[in-house]
Amino acid sequence: MSNYQTETKLTQIGNGFDQLGAVNIPIYLSTAYRHQGIGISKGYDYIRTGNPTRSVLEKAIAEIEGGQEGFACSSGMSAIQLVFSLFSSGDHIIASRDLYGGTYRLFEILAKQVHLSFTYWDGESVEELAADIRPETKALFIETPTNPLMHEVDISELSYITKKNHLLLIVDNTFYTPVLQKPIAEGADLVVYSATKYLAGHNDVLAGLVVSNSEKVTERLRVYHNSCGAVLDPFDSWLLIRGLKTLALRMRQHQENAGRLAAWLGKQLFVTKVLYPGKGGMVSFELTKKAYIEPFLKALHLITFAESLGGVESLITYPATQTHADIPEALRLKYGLSDRLLRLSAGIEHPDDLIADLDQAFRSLQKGAAVHG
C-alpha cells in the first residue's frame, strides 16, 4: 500500500490479512500457537512476542509513518519507556522544556534511578541547543507542538543538528498525528505516540506506539519490547485499528473546531492569551485571574472537565493540578505555564454548540464578577 495516500492507508488497515476474507481484522485472543514440530512455526509462538492483531497494527503504523518497524505498547508512557531502554547510565538527553508532566515525571525517575541526565531546551534558539550537546549526549527528545504551550519547532532543522552530532531525534507526535505531521519524513529517527489520544480517538483505549526508522536501534527495541512485556493486548490493538480508520476524518473536524474556538476565545473579555499553532485540535488559553478557573470549569455543561485529549468529546484540562502537577510550580511559572492556563481538546461536536457552552460559562463569570464588585 506504499503508493496510497495516508487516508487510504488508514482506512484499509487489516483488510486482506485474514485468510477467510474478513474485511475487518479478527481479534486473535490466543496466548499460544500450535507448532507442527521442533523449530517449525507459522510466525507466532507466544502472545507477548507476537500477536496477529497487534502485528497488523504495528505494520500499519510503520508504513503510515514511513518507518522501518512499529511497536504497540500498553500506554503512551510505556512507549516512551521502551525508547529510553536504548540509553544507559551516564547518557545525556536534551528534551523540550515545555513537556507533558508525565514525561517529565518519568525523566526525573530515570535521572535518579538510572542516572541519565537531562537538559531542557526552550525550543527557541538552535544555537543554544547546539551548545547543550556534550560528548555523552545521545538524543534529542521533542514535542511539537508542545504540551500545553503549543510551541512548534522545525523538525528538519533539528534533524540536521542531530545527524551532524550522531544523536537520535525522537519526536512525540501525539498532538498532530501522522495526518498532520510525519516526523520521519522530516528526519526523525523515532516517533512516539500516546495512542490513547487522537489515534484511538474515542476515550476508551489505553495504548502507545513507537515507530523506528533507525537500523541501529530497531533490533534493540524489538528485543526489549518482548523482554519487558509492555505490549498492547489483542482487543485494544483491534480497538486502536478501528480508531485509526477514521482518524483523517476526525482530525479535519477537530482542526476546524479548534480554529473556530481559538478565534472566538481571542475576542473574550476574560481571556488574556490564546495559544493555537494554526493546526490540530488543541487550544490553550489563559484567563485574567486564577480565581476564575474553578467557577468557569463548573459553569461548563457540554465541554467536560477531564484529564485527557484527542477523543470525539471535547475535554478541558487544568494543567497546574492535572497533567502537569508533577512539575514544580516555580519551574512551571518560569517557562510560562501559569496557574491561569486551561487546555482545551476540541472534539467533533458542532462548533456552534461548543462556542455557546463557552459563552454561557463566561457570562456566568461576568455575573459573578458584577456581584462581587
From TrEMBL:
One of its GO terms (molecular function) is carbon-sulfur lyase activity. Keywords: Aminotransferase, Pyridoxal phosphate, Transferase. Signal peptide: none annotated. InterPro entries: Cys/Met-Metab_PyrdxlP-dep_enz (IPR000277), Cys_met_metab_PP (IPR054542), PyrdxlP-dep_Trfase (IPR015424), PyrdxlP-dep_Trfase_major (IPR015421), PyrdxlP-dep_Trfase_small (IPR015422). It holds the Pfam family Cys_Met_Meta_PP. It comes from the Bacteria. GO terms for biological process: transsulfuration. Transmembrane segments: none annotated. The modification N6-(pyridoxal phosphate)lysine is found at residue 197. Its cofactor is pyridoxal 5'-phosphate. GO terms for cellular component: cytoplasm. Belongs to the trans-sulfuration enzymes family. This is Aminotransferase class I/II-fold pyridoxal phosphate-dependent enzyme. It comes from Sporolactobacillus sp. Y61.
